[in-house]
Amino acid sequence: MYFSEDLIEEIRSRNDIVDVISTYVKLKKSGSNYFGLCPFHNEKSPSFSVSPSKQMYHCFGCGVGGNVFTFVMEYENFSFMEAVRMLAERVGIEIPEEEYSEEAKERANLKSILLEVNKLAAQYFYVQLKSEQGKYAHTYLTKRGLNEETITAFGLGYSHKYRDDLYKYLKTKGYSDEILVKAGLISVSEKSGVFDKFWNRVMFPIMDVNNRVIGFGGRVMGDGEPKYLNSPETVIFDKSRNLYGLNRARTSRKSYFLLCEGYMDVIALHQAGFTNAVASLGTAFTPGHASLIKRYVNEVYLTFDSDEAGTKAALRAIPILKEAGIIAKIIRMEPYKDPDEFIKHLGTEAFEERINKARNGFLFSLEILEREYDMNSPEGKTSFFNEVAKRLNQFEEEIERNNYIEAVAEKYHVGYENLRKLVATMAIKHGLAAPATKAKQTGGKDKNKEDGNLQSQKILLTWLAEDKRVFAQIKKYIFPEDFTKDLYKSVANILYEQYESGEVKPAQVMNYFTDEDEHKEVASLFHTKIQRLDTKAEQEKALKETIIRVKTNSINEATRLLEPTDIEGLQKLMIARRNLQDLQKLHISID
Description:
Layout: H1 5-14, H2 17-22, E1 28-30, E2 33-36, E3 48-51, E4 56-59, E5 65-66, H3 68-76, H4 80-90, H5 102-130, H6 135-143, H7 148-153, E6 157-159, H8 165-172, H9 177-182, E7 186-189, E8 193-196, E9 201-207, E10 213-220, E11 228-230, H10 246-249, E12 256-260, H11 263-271, E13 277-279, H12 287-294, E14 299-302, H13 308-323, E15 327-330, H14 339-356, E16 359-360, H15 361-370, H16 378-392, H17 398-412, H18 416-429, H19 445-466, H20 468-474, H21 486-501, H22 506-509, H23 516-525, H24 536-561, H25 567-585
Parallel strand pairs: 12-13, 12-14, 14-15
Antiparallel strand pairs: 1-2, 2-3, 3-4, 4-5, 6-9, 7-8, 9-10, 10-11, 15-16
Helix pairs in contact: 3-4, 16-18, 17-18, 18-24, 19-20, 19-21, 19-24, 24-25
């Protein structure tokens, strides 16, 4: 931690969150909070709430939330330290020189240099493609159906067949080997010396939303391996938080994105007039990708390859998109493999028809799930519907959940009311929002159980931060050590200390976590989506089940770790189990 806790808290407390966010978002007071249109996703009705009392923000649409530092980090794409510095300057707080990190200064300077050298490399690759040496690569692109306008628009290029061509060029511009390694443009080894990361490849510059070159993808010319090669991650290139083509797709007038698997699919779609196409960067689709997409659209059409690998990739992406509040639909490419092949053979009108006939992502996932059960046996059908009921609990909004229950009931010819009751039962049994599990994978049972326990702990921390009455009822039974993940335990410790001191400030809790990933995870702990069930009794029962699940898991974990000779530990466990019995008799009220 580069700054003292007292200094960070002073900066946070003097930067009123309403004042800060008002400089980015038009806010209007409603009751005790302020509301506006969320800056992190497209919406027509304000769902972005800012609380002056809590000094926290939360979007009920896409689920983002946190304190004033979190907002600046997300909006400006700053690190935690960069956000602290900006907010300190805003209120005239001078950061002591000895507390200001030289590393932070160097990091900011390094970003500028890497952007500069990547831009030069992209220009060099483009010139090479247009030269005599790049004729073979240029012919490859035109044979793939790309015209000159598209090649220029995407800045496509060629890396020379000589392995040190780019290296020699950039050295003439004065860049050190250290900088070129950090940019991901060269590699160094004892055996081969210094050589270009990319050579004899068609080059695809990867740009951020501000059209700055942050990395490259390269397709080998000939039979070399790997066929596609991407830049390594650098301080300016995070594969999980960038999408190929987003710099162009974000200006599209379409209300949805077409999500592809490869660079050529994106380029082919853009050339065909589908300028809302994007792709992940040689990596699996991640929550970071979904959060990025949510800033621009609420709907995604998956155009993944029609083979088994593409189907699996689509099934992995659907719940990630759902968690981010994005509607997912599936476009199937049969009889062709991908959008590029499809459009070459059938044209743009046929592809437009496929878009119009896209299948609902959730129902598509059930069709694939159905293949794993024996639907001709009562046991198989029961197991299938239990799994379906758990997956229906992904939908936190009651109306949306009921609409999907109705659609599933109609599709599989079961009673709507019976299915609704099963969904409610599964919600209580699995901690309100247990993640969906793959059927018939015995190896994953422990992982699914662990995920359910952690989800219950997250939900309980959200409840504790939101409602002081919950703490008063459970403080005799639930303790910080009952949270089994170290980060959750740390948060619970701070939160409990605040309760005991009589001053609960979730926004201040986040000051203790300066690592960007930890900071954002802590922010999510105070904004976990809690499914509101149909009746007050169901909600109270769900809260009670969540509390019991957290305590039971804590006892089970302590039992597992208990040494056979630890008599004192055994006595404590016996007391904990007796307290658990008392807890099961406790009435939890949400009035």
